[in-house]
Design goal:
The chain has 9 helices and 8 strands. The protein is of the alpha/beta class. A hairpin with a 4-residue loop joins strand 1 and strand 2. The longest helix has about 35 residues, at about 5-35.
């Protein structure tokens, strides 16, 4: 026979077990959060790192970016700048934590790594206050040039991104060819605005809809495949494009490369070994910066 006292004791044990599970869950969350927030930049001895928080008028909130520049800059000297855009799910620390990018600052470059959230560096349809494109081309560039020894003007400015950041770099360069002399798209998520709504990828599709709107919206049409048809090739940046042979993004990137080739843009496209990860991207950076320094008329 099960007595009331036995039921009470069993109930208490269940509560204790449940509480323990909850505590373990939150402890695991804290550990994951700590791991996500860990910041271990890979820096060479001849560079310096600075993190900046500034007020973005376009976003109406504080935003962060990271800068790596040469340790020694002569008084009055102004250096070319490269904007490095992170991928989806990442953040402004990725380029220094996951890639060996700091040696390229020693070439005489200022490397700027902005926080882009999961925005695709686009002025979102919803919420409309997420004007990430305006934040990039107006607020960020202005703040960088006011605080660091950066040379102004198109000929001193490049933009490079991976995955979501590759999409952002290519799109921003096409939308604002007067701002950049060089644009690098590494494993670019180049076709995201063209992707149809999918029940199998419901959360992802909802996210894309919030940024780009529903099918046929103006923001959906404002994508690299359309922009490349209306942009003057002679006035555009040089495009450096890569994609891994094991990536699902390869067909779209190959299509885009064929399109800009047919339109006589100045570009190069490389299919490389590897998947969609920093191992592939990091190994390709010397080639990216070699081309970048050539087209920015730097001695590499």
């Amino acid at each position: 026979m099960i007595t009331a006292s036995m039921r009470t004791a069993s109930h208490r044990r269940s509560n204790i077990v449940f509480l323990a599970i909850i505590l373990l869950f939150f402890a695991g969350c804290r550990k994951r959060d700590a791991a996500q927030q860990a910041d271990n930049p890979r820096l060479t001895p001849n560079v310096v790192l600075r993190d900046v928080t500034f007020r973005s008028a376009a976003l109406n909130r504080d935003m962060q970016y990271r800068v790596v520049l040469p340790l020694v800059v002569a008084p009055g000297q102004r250096l070319p700048v490269v904007y490095l855009l992170h991928g989806g799910g990442g953040g402004f620390r990725d380029w220094t934590n996951d890639a060996d990018v700091s040696p390229f600052a020693e070439l005489g470059l200022v490397l700027v790594m902005p926080e882009g959230g999961s925005s695709y560096y686009t002025n979102a349809v919803d919420p409309p206050q997420d004007r990430y494109k305006d934040y990039m081309v107006a607020d960020l560039i202005s703040d960088v040039e006011s605080k660091f020894p950066v040379a102004p003007g198109r000929s001193n400015r490049a933009i490079v991104g991976v995955s979501m950041g590759g999409f952002g770099a290519v799109k921003l360069a096409l939308r604002h060819p007067d701002l950049f002399i060089f644009a690098g798209g590494i494993s670019s998520a180049i076709d995201v605005p063209r992707r149809a709504f999918s029940i199998k990828r419901l959360q992802q599709s909802r996210h894309y809809n919030s940024i780009f709107g529903s099918a046929g919206s103006q923001t959906r049409r404002d994508n690299p495949f359309i922009l490349v048809r209306t942009t003057n090739p002679g006035a555009s940046p040089y495009f450096f494009l890569t994609c891994g042979e094991q990536e699902g993004l390869l067909p779209a990137n190959r299509e885009f490369a064929n399109l800009i080739g047919a339109r006589h843009f100045r570009f190069e496209f490389h299919m490389v070994r590897g998947g969609h990860d920093w191992n592939q991207w990091n190994a390709w950076l010397p080639s990216v910066f070699r081309s970048l320094t050539e087209h920015m008329n730097l001695k590499g």
